[in-house]
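Exercise: predict the fold of this chain.
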Amino acid sequence: MFIDNVPIGKNHKPFIIAEMSGNHNQSLERALEIVDAAAEAGAHALKLQTYTADTMTIKGALTIQDQASLWHGEELHTLYQKAYTPWEWHKPIFDRTKEHGMVAFSTPFDASAVDFLEELEVPAYKIASFENNDLPLLKKVASTGKPIIMSTGVATLSMIEDAVNTLRESGCENFVLLKCTSTYPATPENTNLLTIPHLQQMFDCSVGLSDHTMGIGAAIAAVALGAQVIEKHFTLRRADGGVDSAFSIEPHELKNLVIESERAFLAMGRIQYGVQEAEKNSLKFKRSIYAVKDIAIGEAFTHENTKVIRPGDGLPPKYYEMLLGKKSNKAIKSGTPLSFEVLL
């Protein structure tokens, strides 16, 4: 599949998405700096979230009581007012992203956001974990005919199946499923990357990781398990604060993610045994049987006058036991690789 002419699939290097989310801290200037930093780090895409507090919830619906939450004590409507990206910012952010040659797209959270993003001609859509059960929204997004990347957090296998069936039945032919653990931050212990190849097997689609762990280790491991898309929250500096800053990566980390994920992809290669072309010059460093003392005609080969050493110009070591006790048919100087021709 392709997103804005960028190929995604098992034969292509991982597609790295920098998720801005609320890390602009309500500053368009900072938002544009985030775009520039993501581009400099080598990210392939910049993603926004398209909602308002009123399209997400209503005032007084919920105050977060979880003591472990980054947002403990926040009223949900107020939190989304702090985090949302003003809709009038989308075009300048997308324009800046495109100037860098990156893909620009967003996560819509209701039908009005889809209509708005269609006006901006986004090349793809993201479905967030908490919306993967909103089948009417999935139908709306799928009806655009554009590729969809969907996170699978807080969803049973049956729920994911419902979502996938909805996408396919509504006209979406190209989609990616991202393994996601919807805790902020996630831990390595609850990330469960082995789900990634299982998702691919179950739904016969491209797969990846929406990663909320700290650092880039989980993302690199995901690539080794077949992840073709990696999404990470991104900020200029965690120290600047913001609703998502605590589990976002900084520019140097994003750059390392781009580099190391591609290395992991290239290193996967294929099942391979034997001597590769690149290894042929290293054959000399294999071990073989050498004379380590001068040996006279008729003298027996022993542990004292022969040894298995580098380089590999003599008999392979597997013949060493067979050689011991046999006699030489010629005088051999110390340092000579042995061959069958020296045997009586």
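Check your answer against the key: The longest helix spans residues 251-268.
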